[in-house]
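ok new one. same drill as before - structure tokens go in, u give me an amino acid for every spot. 862 of them this time. try not to just spam alanines like last time pls lmao
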């Protein structure tokens, strides 16, 4: 039984219920607001009070400024009184004034310190020190005017230093007197030497002795201000003494050596006592000792052996460094933190052991001198490498370019050899790379310094290149003996691996049974895998670094050998062939980008051989261009078999050689057309490979088209259709094939480009052509295109064909229209126009309907 109310009654009931709900909702919202007010009463806000202005300075800073200004003004007044107003008073009065003022200034700080006025006491004490200097000056002017100024100043500075030191020690709360005493103590010895007529050597000794005293003050006094002042003075005077000793080691070694060695001993002792100064101080001491030893060796050795003497002394000094002195942390993160002082081990020295910082500083000084020696030995390397490139003789002239530096000492070879030997024994990646680079430099400089014959020089360069390239491709051999921590992998070193030294000293642990491991370098792998296996992954990147170092040297030697071989025809063929074989070997056996670079270099070497053959055979440029096409043809064939990166490098380089051939053949258009056609054949053959199809097919089409155009130009063909039809026909074929695959494709995309390439240039030529053949042929072609567009409902064909047909017809009718218009009365054209407007107006609606229908039909065309 259906008890539902009628719609009108039910609507009234619904409205009543909604009104009750709205009323209840209003009550609940009011209750909620009251509850919120009870639970969270509003916080009373404090009345606004403006903030007091912030002081620009503290009371203590203001006090210091006032005291400093007061002391400065009193000092200026005292100086002015002494220098300007002194002559208006008698001797007794002057002495009394100075004595009273100075005594008062020196005694006042005692009372001020008792009252706790430390800053005021500092200012008055500073004034007293200045007055003491004025007292000394006044005493010289009045009573000791005949004495020597330098000698008097030396004695006076010594007296002032002692007095100020005693005064500062008595009033230890004052901070100015003791540093002032240290400053005054710098003058007695140097000024005394100058007063006694001593020269630069004696002055340097006086400065060194004063610096030694300053170093003692730094080591055995506590006030920080005194130590800073003494340390600064020691650095200045000691540096002056060492620089003087270095200069004397060049002109008078037996006078400079004792000075340098004494200074080095003082600096070494200070470095031993102050760990923070150990590395820097030891480096300075090492340089001083090397300058002294090298200067003495210079007196006993020939001139050419001067630099090798310094280098050998430096290598002896670097022997204090051990691989453990600068332990590497996780690879790529730099050195690990040094061990605390007292825990390191080293050679016997001060106190039985030399701190690690001192060893690093001494070794750094020696390494710096070795670097300078290597830089001195590099000019022969540059001459051997770049001399053939900067040639002054013609190719195949038989006259060899000047490569020798006649006046350069042959002992540069000894410097390079010593550096190679020193780096070769260090188990560090940077050392192995440096040794490899210097060995290459040694072999490069050898022909220059020894004046080797031409054939021997070429053979040595090729052997150097071959050896370097062999190291570059030899898998993993350069890293033999390297500790894992030296590998700059950017990852932490593999746990459980250690240097050979650590392996020798550490107890052997039992290894557990073979266990599964997730990945090389993971925790399980590092715990269970053998150490030889664990080192393979981190050793791969050091091998790459060393390989690249050797590779760069090998390629540089190869280029230099090719440049040198251009002096002789036979040598050119031999060296180019050898370089081609070497680079091909690296491209086959190498790894990473070296394969790609070597492949491109091999193509260039083959190009050089083609040029050499053409030059030897006396080929003209056009035949040379055709011969060069053998290179891109060969690279296209090799590209189908080589790996992808190598194939791309080979083909790109071969394409560049093809462009070079086109440039050479450009002087003869007929041969240029042939060259373009042959290049198109090579590109078409390359297009048979799926991965090269798109690019190579378009390249072949462009080359064939250019070859056709060049040939037509050679035949003096000026008709535009001859140039446009070879483009239009393939374009129309491609468009037709695409439309068969994609019926929804627009006719403007598929047929528009091909039609426009021929119709538009032909229309332009027809407008300036006085004959009738081209306009007639163009009109027939445009009519056919228009009919095809209407038949298959293709918008591009209908528009292009109809437009060209209309313009072509207008061009043909223009003369006659002009004649007819000229023969008609002048009132006839306006009358005809009026009639036309009337006719259009009469049938306006019907014409609009027809126009809409035509537009809709046109829009449905593709």
């Amino acid at each position: 039984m259906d008890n539902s109310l009628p719609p009108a009654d039910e609507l009234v009931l619904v409205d009543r219920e909604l009104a009750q709900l709205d009323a209840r909702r209003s009550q609940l919202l009011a209750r909620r607001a009251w509850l919120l007010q009870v639970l969270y009463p509003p916080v009373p806000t404090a009345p606004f009070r403006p903030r007091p202005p912030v002081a620009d300075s503290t009371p203590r800073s203001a006090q210091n400024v006032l005291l400093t200004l007061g002391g400065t003004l009193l000092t200026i007044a005292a100086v002015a009184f002494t220098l300007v107003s002194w002559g208006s008073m008698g001797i007794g009065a002057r002495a009394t004034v100075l004595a009273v003022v100075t005594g008062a200034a020196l005694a006042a700080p005692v009372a001020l310190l008792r009252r706790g006025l430390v800053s005021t006491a500092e200012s008055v004490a500073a004034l007293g020190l200045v007055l003491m200097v004025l007292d000394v000056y006044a005493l010289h002017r009045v009573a000791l005017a005949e004495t020597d100024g330098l000698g008097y100043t030396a004695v006076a500075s010594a007296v002032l230093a002692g007095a100020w030191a005693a005064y500062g020690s008595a009033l230890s709360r004052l901070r100015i007197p003791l540093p002032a005493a240290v400053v005054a103590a710098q003058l007695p010895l140097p000024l005394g030497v100058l007063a006694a007529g001593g020269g630069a050597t004696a002055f340097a000794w006086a400065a060194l002795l004063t610096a030694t005293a300053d170093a003692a003050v730094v080591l055995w006094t506590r006030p920080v201000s005194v130590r800073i002042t003494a340390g600064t003075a020691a650095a200045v005077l000691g540096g002056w003494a060492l620089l003087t000793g270095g200069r004397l080691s060049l002109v008078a070694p037996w006078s400079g050596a004792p000075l340098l060695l004494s200074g080095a001993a003082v600096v070494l002792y200070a470095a031993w006592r102050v760990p923070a100064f150990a590395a820097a101080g030891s480096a300075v001491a090492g340089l001083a000792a090397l300058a002294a030893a090298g200067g003495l060796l210079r007196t006993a050795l020939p001139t050419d052996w001067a630099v090798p003497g310094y280098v050998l002394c430096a290598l002896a000094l670097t022997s204090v460094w051990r691989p453990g002195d600068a332990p590497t942390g996780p690879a790529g993160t730099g050195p690990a933190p040094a061990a605390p002082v007292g825990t390191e081990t080293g050679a016997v020295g001060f106190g039985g052991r030399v701190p690690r910082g001192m060893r690093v500083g001494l070794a750094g000084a020696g390494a710096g001198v070795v670097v300078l020696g290597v830089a001195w030995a590099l000019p022969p390397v540059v001459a051997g490498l770049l001399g053939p490139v900067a040639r002054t003789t013609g190719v195949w002239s038989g006259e060899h370019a000047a490569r020798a530096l006649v006046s350069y000492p042959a002992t540069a070879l000894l410097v390079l050899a010593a550096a190679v030997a020193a780096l070769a024994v260090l188990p560090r990646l940077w050392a192995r790379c440096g040794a490899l680079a210097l060995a290459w430099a040694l072999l490069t400089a050898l022909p220059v310094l020894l004046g080797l014959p031409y054939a021997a020089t070429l053979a040595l360069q090729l052997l150097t290149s071959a050896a370097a390239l062999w190291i570059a491709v030899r898998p993993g051999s350069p890293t033999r003996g390297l500790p894992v921590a030296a590998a700059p992998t950017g990852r932490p070193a593999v746990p459980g691996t250690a240097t050979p030294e650590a392996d020798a000293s550490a107890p052997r642990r039992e290894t557990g049974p073979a266990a599964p491991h997730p990945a090389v370098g993971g925790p399980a792998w590092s715990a269970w895998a053998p150490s030889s296996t664990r080192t393979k992954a981190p050793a791969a990147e050091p091998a790459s670094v060393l390989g690249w170092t050797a590779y760069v040297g090998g390629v540089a030697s190869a280029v230099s050998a090719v440049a040198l071989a251009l002096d002789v025809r036979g040598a050119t063929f031999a060296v180019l062939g050898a370089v081609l074989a070497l680079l091909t070997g690296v491209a086959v056996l190498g790894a990473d980008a070296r394969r790609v670079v070597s492949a491109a270099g091999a193509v260039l070497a083959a190009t050089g051989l083609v040029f050499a053959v053409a030059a030897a055979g006396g080929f003209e440029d056009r035949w040379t261009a055709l011969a060069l096409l053998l290179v891109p043809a060969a690279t296209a064939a090799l590209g189908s078999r080589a790996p992808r990166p190598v194939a791309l490098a080979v083909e790109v380089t071969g394409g560049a050689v093809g462009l070079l051939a086109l440039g050479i053949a450009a002087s003869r258009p007929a041969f240029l057309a042939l060259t373009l056609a042959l290049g198109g054949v090579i590109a078409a053959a390359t297009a048979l490979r799926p991965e090269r199809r798109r690019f190579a097919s378009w390249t072949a089409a462009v080359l064939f088209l250019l070859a056709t155009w060049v040939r037509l130009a050679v035949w003096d063909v000026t008709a535009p259709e001859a140039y446009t039809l070879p483009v239009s026909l393939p374009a129309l074929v491609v468009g037709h094939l695409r439309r068969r695959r994609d019926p929804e494709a627009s006719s403007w995309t598929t047929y528009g480009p091909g039609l426009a390439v021929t119709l538009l240039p032909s229309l332009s030529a027809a407008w300036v052509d006085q004959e009738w053949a081209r306009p007639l042929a163009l009109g027939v072609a445009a009519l056919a295109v228009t009919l095809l567009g209407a038949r298959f409902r293709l918008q591009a064909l209908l528009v292009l064909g109809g437009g060209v047909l209309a313009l072509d017809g207008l061009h043909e009718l223009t003369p006659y229209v002009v004649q007819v218009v000229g023969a008609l009365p002048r009132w006839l054209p306006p009358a005809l126009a009026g009639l036309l407007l009337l006719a259009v107006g009469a049938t306006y609606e019907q014409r609009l309907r027809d126009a809409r229908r035509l537009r809709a039909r046109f829009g449905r065309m593709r």
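Confidence is low (pLDDT under 50) at residues 50-64, 327-352, 477-537. and btw DSSP finds 35 helices and no strands in the chain.
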